[in-house]
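Posting for a labmate who doesn't have an account.
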Amino acid sequence: MGYRERRIELIAKRAAPQLEPGEQIQTGFIAQTGWWIFTVLVATFVATDRAILIVHRDGVQRLPRDFRFGEPNGLYHRIELDRTYKVHRQYHPEITAADEAFREMQARGGLQDSEQH
């Protein structure tokens, strides 16, 4: 199993307990907050067909699926939410995939009422 496959497996494992019945993972990536070794918190972002999950050691945050991450750029792409999250460029393809999955969902007629959280 290669590095990319292990990364995908790790993200799916972290997200599994937080998924609702029938909810499907579209993509995921790791982000961090803070810059210094003692202030860095790591979070796993998971885009599903129903929500954006942010899984960290303090719990999980569930956001509506209509969130867009934006075009990734630089060494660390910044995502502004409750705090600033930084995503290393190794995960830029996953950020693009999450936004593309959202655009595809919109093209199919948007989210169903039962899928909005």
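Reply:
Got it, the structure tokens are right above this. Helices lie at 3-15, 92-107.
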